[in-house]
Amino acid sequence: MDFRMTDEQELMLENLREFCAREITEEKIQQWYRDRRVAEDVCKAYLDAGFGYMFIPEEYGGIPSDAMTLVLVVEELIRSAGATMPFMSYGLAMYDIAEFGTPEQVKMGMEMYKQTGQQCFSLALSEPVAGSDNASMQATAKWLGNGKVVINGTKTMVSHAETAPLIMVIAKDEDPSPENRNMSMWLVPREAPGVKLAPLHKIGQEITNFCEVYLDNVEVDESALLGVKGQGFLQLMQNFEIERLMISAHSLGLAQAAMEDAAAYAGQRIAFGQPLGNFQMIQQKLTDMEIKLQNMRNLLYKTAWEFDNGIPVRLNSALCKRYLSLAATEVCSEAMQILGGIGYTTETRVGRIWKDARGNSMSGGTDEIMVHIAGRQILKKYAK
Predict the structure, then answer these.
(1) CB–CB of 88/97 below 8 Å?
(2) In the predicted model, what is the mean pLDDT of residues 87-106?
(3) Mean pLDDT of all residues in the chain?
(4) Domain 239-381 has CATH 1.20.140.10
(5) Which sequence spans correspond to the domains of the chain?
(6) Listed residue (313, 128, 118, 148) closest to 223, CA to CA
(7) What is the pLDDT of residues 201-221, one digit of tens each?
(8) Domain 121-229 belongs to what topology?
(9) Which residue pairs, CB below 8 angstroms and at least 24 apart, start in 259-264?
(10) Do residues 299 and 327 lie in contact, with contact meaning Cβ atoms separated by under 8 Å?
């Protein structure tokens, strides 16, 4: 197992650092967090620079990329910015439409993506009564028999709903009962009659707008179906493992940024006549933070390597998602403690980084659900 980067990967990361230095300044980041979105010109610039095509199939203009390269790019993007950048989710979303869409849907989605650099749809999966418990989903799609389908339901925690022109709604086919596991994907225009949005205000990752979506007798053509009828949730699950790696890379990038800020501060801040970093308690914090960072990186890179080599990663992707989310929050919290009072203000970025890292314990599957997934795999692994 060799984690040395290829020449192509090193060049890509160098170009990415240059892009971040030019396009993603701290002043801009603060404005984007207030606006609940990244400026469209920067989204478009990221796409035009080629990074936004990395997860898209080659036949649609995409750039072939393995999981290791994707992990490296996400980690470096987040580390360089010291903030949540939503670009990774754009590529994942566009992969879904390329994978499951009809030629007409793919063409429409890719044209939208190329115009704005932002994903063409938001994902409406979770509901107020059905988060991890997706069998309790109440949203339904009913066929009228005249080429039309009516969708009803309430979705929550829908990222990018304010900016994406389409909403990919996961709804049960006809019957909302828990016994019905048949769910389908539908591409619904955000401006369709019967669609209403209500903003949700997160305490972190505010740069990604978040909404509740109400669907009241929303009528769409049967052609709005994305993929196979009744297979919507199974289709969505196909990307869960790579999504967990991307979220883990996001956590690692945030933790690395916090570490760099804390270590630099400890080397410069004078307390009791000497640099703060000379005190053993601060050195112990930095040491334990560095151990966590190296463990995080080793587990993530190993899992990405396994994914690229066709080794099943159902267990390790869940371990990654759980461990890196928890460890990143711990590293960021210690970084804030090293900065002291100034770290608990908006005058530094460490507090923002900590808030963003905390959110990853819930996104892409909660820490508790990762235990459920990993626990079952561990029992199988060690069964005699």
Answers:
(1) no
(2) 90
(3) 95
(4) yes
(5) 7-116, 121-229, 239-381
(6) 148
(7) 999 999 999 999 999 999 999
(8) Butyryl-CoA Dehydrogenase, subunit A; domain 2 (2.40.110)
(9) 259/286, 259/289, 259/290, 259/293, 259/331, 259/335, 260/79, 261/82, 261/335, 261/339, 261/348, 261/349, 261/350, 261/353, 262/286, 262/289, 262/334, 262/335, 262/336, 262/338, 262/339, 262/350
(10) no
Q: Which two tokens stand for residue 43?
A: 């989204």
pLDDT in tens, 282-304: 999 999 999 999 999 999 999 99
Residues 6+ apart with CB under 8 A from 203: 355, 358
pLDDT at 69 > cutoff 90: yes
**93 falls in which pLDDT band (50, 70, 90)?**
confident
Q: Position of tokens 């290829």? A: 6
Are 353 and 206 within 8 A, CB to CB?
no
Q: Given this chain, do its domains 121-229 and 239-381 carry the same CATH topology?
A: no
Cα distances from 350 to residues 85, 254, 343, in angstroms, run: 16, 9, 6
Tell me the three-class secondary structure of the chain, residue by residue: CCCCCCHHHHHHHHHHHHHHHHHCCHHHHHHHHHHCCCCHHHHHHHHHCCHHHCCCCHHHCCCCCCHHHHHHHHHHHHHHHCCCCCHHHHHHHHHHHHHHCCHHHHHHHHHHHHHHCCCCEEEECCECCECCCHHHCCCEEEECCCCEEEEEEEEEEEECCCCCCEEEEEEEECCCCCCCCCEEEEEEECCCCCEEEEEECCCCCCCCCEEEEEEEEEEEEHHHEECCCCEHHHHHHCCHHHHHHHHHHHHHHHHHHHHHHHHHHHHHCEECCEEHHHCHHHHHHHHHHHHHHHHHHHHHHHHHHHHHCCCCCHHHHHHHHHHHHHHHHHHHHHHHHHHHHHHHCCCCCHHHHHHHHHHCCCCCCCHHHHHHHHHHHHHHHCCC
Angle, helices 7-23/67-81, rounded to nearest 10 degrees: 30
CATH 2.30.130.10 fits 7-116, yes or no: no
**Distance separating alpha carbons of residues 110 and 117, to the nearest angstrom:** 10
pLDDT at residue number 3: 83
Residues 66, 122: Cα–Cα separation, whole Å: 25
